[in-house]
Q: What sequence folds into this?
């Protein structure tokens, strides 16, 4: 059983039901982006890097939850152990299945066309050691690297709260000044390694701020409105192809402070200013889509590859078929792999994962 403080934090996170729909939306942004890239649907306006905005939402949401769930609960050895177990159970099992299956599939030409490109043992080890990631798998190493950084900050937080909060502002400030580094790449014992956590760290920092703030401030009712959910409609305006068409210029995506500010503002408005019970964000469909969003994120590309090989891609009807197949595959994965593995690992003593 979790401690009372941990249980209270878990209960508070569960009440933010809209986060389920935001997870699902983030996954769908990535899914649709890859279809747009593959087919050129609507002149590619929903692709050409648009999927990165789904990843930005994922990173903001992940850091938000870590701060909201854990940051102000006592970082005892037992709590840290539960945290590590919960984070491992949430991310690693399905990732391992996908990576190992992709490596094994290289022996078959037909299967190899469906899965991720992990052609040799070095690539396999690089993925398993969280040094690198191909295609959408690039996001898993920085996510887990952030979990480690967060655990260190959580451990120090009771004694150095003010110092950590002040120090954390240095990252976005340096980022806003420009010249923020791309992800450094190197080799470690002959294995390719890319430290993407450097490039995406500002998103994790801002998500952590928002999660911490959520525990200390709730918007007065007079400031809340269901209409703030319309802020999500501004997100596509930032898609590279649409933004270029509207403004005549390109933005810097991950390294552009305007993008970080805009996506964070949209996320913050939805989380802080939309009242509880909003039917767009809090509904059964959003709950279910959020539940399978991780499987959807990792397994939509095999669905895309399968439909491409079958000659079934093209147009809006192909998009609907692809999304339906991807969600079905995600639901099967969640039921047969992701959820059972998570439950088994949590049974070792971790609290309920989010």
A:
């Amino acid at each position: 059983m979790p401690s009372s403080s941990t249980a209270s934090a878990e209960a508070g996170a569960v009440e933010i039901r809209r986060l389920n729909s935001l997870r699902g939306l983030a996954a769908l942004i990535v899914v649709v982006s890859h279809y747009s890239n593959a087919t050129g649907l609507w002149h590619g306006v929903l692709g050409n890097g648009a999927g990165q905005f789904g990843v930005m939402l994922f990173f903001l949401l992940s850091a938000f939850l870590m701060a909201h769930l854990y940051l102000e609960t006592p970082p005892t050895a037992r709590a840290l152990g539960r945290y590590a177990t919960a984070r491992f159970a949430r991310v690693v099992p399905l990732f391992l299945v996908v990576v190992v299956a992709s490596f094994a599939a290289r022996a078959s030409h037909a299967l190899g066309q469906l899965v991720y490109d992990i052609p040799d043992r070095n690539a396999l080890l690089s993925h398993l050691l969280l040094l690198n990631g191909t295609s959408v798998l690039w996001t898993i190493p920085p996510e887990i690297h952030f979990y480690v950084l967060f655990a260190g900050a959580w451990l120090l937080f009771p004694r150095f709260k003010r110092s950590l909060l002040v120090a954390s502002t240095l990252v976005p400030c340096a980022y806003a000044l420009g010249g923020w580094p791309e992800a450094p790449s190197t080799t470690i014992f002959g294995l390719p390694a890319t430290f993407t956590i450097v490039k995406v760290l500002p998103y994790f920092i801002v998500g952590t701020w928002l999660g911490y703030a959520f525990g200390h401030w709730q918007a007065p009712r007079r400031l809340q409105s269901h209409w703030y959910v319309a802020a999500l409609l501004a997100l596509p305006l930032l898609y590279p192809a649409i933004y270029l068409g509207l403004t005549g210029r390109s933005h810097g995506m991950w390294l552009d402070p305007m993008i970080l500010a805009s996506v964070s503002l949209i996320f913050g408005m939805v989380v802080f200013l939309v009242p509880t019970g909003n039917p767009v964000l809090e509904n059964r469909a959003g709950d279910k889509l959020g539940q399978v969003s991780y499987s959807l994120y990792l397994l939509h590309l095999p669905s895309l590859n399968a439909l491409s090989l079958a000659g079934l891609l093209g147009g809006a009807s192909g998009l609907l078929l692809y999304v339906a197949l991807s969600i079905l595959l995600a639901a099967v994965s969640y039921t047969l792999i992701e959820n059972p593995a998570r439950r088994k690992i949590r049974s070792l003593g971790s609290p309920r994962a989010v």
